[in-house]
TrEMBL record:
InterPro entries the record matches: DNA_brk_join_enz (IPR011010), Integrase-like_cat_sf (IPR013762), Integrase_catalytic (IPR002104), Integrase_recombinase_N (IPR010998), Integrase_SAM-like_N (IPR004107), Tyrosine_recombinase_XerCD (IPR050090)
Domain Tyr recombinase: start-end pairs: 201-402
Biological-process GO terms, alphabetical: DNA integration; DNA recombination
PROSITE patterns assigned: TYR_RECOMBINASE
Family: Belongs to the 'phage' integrase family.
Identification of the protein by name: Tyr recombinase domain-containing protein
Organism (species): Lactococcus cremoris subsp. cremoris GE214
GO molecular function: DNA binding
Keywords tagged on the record: DNA integration, DNA recombination, DNA-binding
SUPFAM superfamilies (UniProt xref): DNA breaking-rejoining enzymes (SSF56349)
C-alpha cells in the first residue's frame, strides 16, 4: 500500500495512505482520504477524497488540493475577489434576492452579453476611467449601426447601452463599499448619446387600419384548428386590454368575468412557468375589455372545451393552454404571428406590439394618461408618458384644428 508524506511550512505534517481499488470492469483506481487541516473560517477539520487513475496522478492531485487550501487562506470557502467577474457575481447574488425572476433573467442577459465580455477578465483594482471610456465608446458605436431592415438588433449592439454602464457603476460602488477599490472609476466617464437611424421607431405598434387588416386575415384562416383559434383569442385580448403577453398566458378562466367584461391580472409567466406575482405592484389590476373581445373569448372557451374533450381531457383552468393543457410557451406561437403579419404586409411588431397598439389607440381617443397607466399596469405615469407621448400623432392634428377654431383674431 503506497504511503505519501507531505511537508508544509518546513515541517513534516501529513502522512497518508493511497489505496488501490479494482473496479467491476477490472480497471484500477487509486484513492486517498486527505486531511487538509482546520478551516480558518469555521474551525472544523477539512478532509477531501482524492481519486485518480494512477498513483502518480493521485500524488499530484493531493499536493494540488493542499496547496489550494493553503493559498485560499486555509479554508475551502472562496474569500478572495480578484477579477471584475468575481465582484460582479458577488453583487449579482445580492441583487437577485430583491427582484422578480423576470428581472433577474434580464440582468443576467445584460451581464453575459455586455458587461462580463468587456470587463470580466480584468483585475478589479486595475480598471481605470480610460478603459471604461473606451468600452462605453465602443458600445455607442455598435448601437449606432443601422438595422438594415432587421427587426431586432444583434446581440451586443443594443441601443440602451447606458443601462449596461449603470450596471458597471453599481458593481464598482459595491466594490468600493467592500474596500476592494480606492475609488470609483465610473465617475469620470462620459456616456455619449447614441445616434439612431431616423427610420428606427421607439415603439413598434399597429394603427387601427392595420389592426383591421390583421384581424380580417386571421378571421379568414381555416377554422377548427387549435393554433388558429388560440391565436385569434390571444391577439384580440392583447389589443383589447393592453396586457403583457406573459400576463395573458397566465390567465385562468376564473380571472375573466364575461358579465362585466373585466379581466383580473395577478400573475405572469416566465419561460412557460406561472409566477405568483406580476411584474410590479401596479400590475395587479382589473382591466375592462370591449364587447367584441368578450365575444371572441366566449367562442374560444367553447372551442377549447370541445377540443380537450376530444382528446379525453376535461375543462381547462388556463385560458390559453398549449395543446396538452400545460402552460403555453408563447415563443412557440411567435413564428405564426410573424408569418401572418408578413402575409398582411404589416410591420413585424411581435406580441408586445399589441400592447403598444392598445396604448396608441387610447391616446388618440383622448383617454387620459392616468387611465392608460392603470390599464397597462405601469409603475408610474411618467413611464407611460415617456414611452407613448410620441404616438399622439392624431392628437397633434386635433390640437391645431381646435386652435384654428378659436383663433379668430
Amino acid at each position: 500500500m503506497p504511503c505519501l508524506t507531505l511537508v508544509q511550512n518546513g515541517k513534516e505534517e501529513i502522512t497518508m495512505n493511497i489505496k488501490e481499488y479494482t473496479k467491476k470492469d477490472g480497471t484500477k483506481v487509486y484513492r486517498a482520504n486527505v486531511y487538509l487541516g482546520v478551516d480558518s473560517l469555521t474551525g472544523k477539520q477539512v478532509r477531501k477524497v482524492i481519486t485518480a487513475k494512477s498513483e502518480k496522478m493521485c500524488n499530484t492531485k493531493i499536493s494540488r488540493a493542499i496547496n489550494e487550501f493553503e493559498k485560499n487562506g486555509q479554508t475551502v470557502r472562496k474569500v478572495s475577489v480578484d477579477d471584475f467577474k468575481d465582484i460582479a457575481m458577488l453583487w449579482f447574488d445580492s441583487y437577485k434576492l430583491g427582484v422578480k425572476p423576470r428581472t433577474v433573467q434580464i440582468m443576467q442577459t445584460r451581464l453575459n452579453n455586455y458587461v462580463l465580455p468587456a470587463l470580466g477578465e480584468y483585475r478589479i483594482d486595475k480598471v481605470n476611467s480610460i478603459i471604461l471610456q473606451q468600452i462605453v465608446n465602443q458600445w455607442m458605436i455598435n448601437a449606432s449601426q443601422p438595422l438594415n431592415g432587421a427587426y431586432h438588433r444583434p446581440k451586443g449592439k443594443g441601443k440602451d447601452f447606458k443601462i449596461n454602464f449603470n450596471i458597471v457603476e453599481r458593481i464598482f460602488k459595491h466594490a468600493l463599499s467592500l474596500g476592494l477599490v480606492k475609488d470609483n472609476p465610473c465617475v469620470n466617464v462620459i456616456v455619449p448619446k447614441v445616434r439612431l437611424e431616423s427610420t428606427e421607431k421607439k415603439v413598434k405598434h399597429l394603427t387601427a387600419e392595420q389592426l383591421k387588416i390583421f384581424f380580417e386575415y386571421i378571421g379568414a384562416l381555416p377554422k377548427e384548428k387549435y393554433t388558429n383559434e388560440l391565436m385569434t383569442g390571444l391577439c384580440r385580448l392583447l389589443v383589447a386590454s393592453g396586457l403583457r403577453i406573459g400576463e395573458a398566458v397566465a390567465l385562468s378562466w376564473s380571472d375573466i368575468d364575461f358579465k362585466t367584461g373585466s379581466v383580473s391580472v395577478s400573475k405572469t409567466t416566465l419561460r412557460a412557468v406561472i409566477q405568483s406575482t406580476p411584474k410590479t405592484d401596479k400590475s395587479n389590476r382589473i382591466v375592462l375589455i370591449d364587447s367584441k373581445a368578450v365575444e371572441v373569448l366566449k367562442h374560444w372557451e367553447l372551442f377549447q372545451a370541445k377540443y380537450f374533450m376530444s382528446i379525453g381531457k376535461g375543462k381547462q383552468e388556463l385560458v390559453f393552454p398549449n395543446r396538452t393543457g400545460g402552460v403555453l410557451d408563447y415563443q412557440t406561437m411567435r413564428p405564426f404571428l410573424i408569418k401572418w403579419l408578413r402575409a398582411c404586409q404589416l410591420p413585424q411588431v411581435g406580441f408586445h406590439g399589441f400592447r403598444h397598439s392598445h396604448a396608441s389607440l387610447l391616446l388618440n381617443a383622448d383617454v387620459p394618461y392616468k387611465e392608460i397607466q392603470e390599464r397597462l399596469g405601469h409603475a408610474s405615469i411618467k413611464m407611460t408618458m415617456d414611452t407613448y407621448s410620441h404616438l399622439e400623432s392624431d392628437n397633434k392634428i386635433k390640437a391645431v384644428e381646435r386652435f384654428e377654431s378659436i383663433a379668430n383674431f
